[in-house]
Amino acid sequence: MRRALPEVRESEEKLREMLAKTRDAKRQRRVHLLVLIRSGEVRTREAAARHLGVHRNSVSDWLAEYEARGLEGMLEIGKPGARPGQKVLTPAVLRQLKERLDGEGFGSYGEIKAWLAREFELEIPYGTVYGLVRFRLASKLKRARPRHVKKRRRGRCLPPLAEAARRAPDRLLPPAGPLLLRRRDAPGPS
Question: Helix 45-52 to helix 25-39 angle, to the nearest 10 degrees?
Fold first, then answer.
């Protein structure tokens, strides 16, 4: 079911005058939305969104603000940045984290998250920790990821000769009896 467009309380002339005076593009679109509704050019939120070149959810959000707080509330544009109540790491915490990353490092981003919780009583989401370390501090985890003990080390295809002899001594010894070598051009036994 489609929700009806709200009743616009301001006059069309006042809104058109405000539209002409407004220089901020974000506020202009919102005033233009009210002009479209007041003049009857649009009958649905979808039509208004197509006309303004924005998503229908943006139109719905703007109209919800208009219904709740009026024209001034609708024209209020939020400021970028951290939401109220969102914790921001202090420079001291960032410095200690950077020192630890440059020193002994961490085994995982989960370990960094636990360290921040233990040392500074900060509960930070995993994705935030990853973004902070990789992009803001431009660092990486310093410890190598653990490997299985049976996995061979890089660059070594075969075990050393002594280890091979210990594993299979009969393969390295020459066969019992004289070693016979035959040349190609030598006549063979007939």
Answer: 140
Q: Measured between alpha carbons, how far is 105 from 174 in angstroms, rounded to an integer? A: 51
Would the pTM of this model clear 0.70, i.e. be above it?
no
DSSP per-residue codes, 108-136? -HHHHHHHHHHHH-----HHHHHHIIIII
Kind and range of the H or E element at 85? Answer: none
Cα dihedral 162→164→168→170 (10° resolution): -60
Distance of alpha carbon 34 from alpha carbon 18, whole angstroms? 11
What would the pLDDT profile of 15-28 be if each residue is shown by its tens digit?
Answer: 999 999 999 999 99
CB atoms within 10 A of CB 181: 6
Report residue 56 as tokens. 């229908």
> Could you tell me which residues come within 8 angstroms of residue 167 by beta carbon, excluding any fewer than 6 positions away?
159
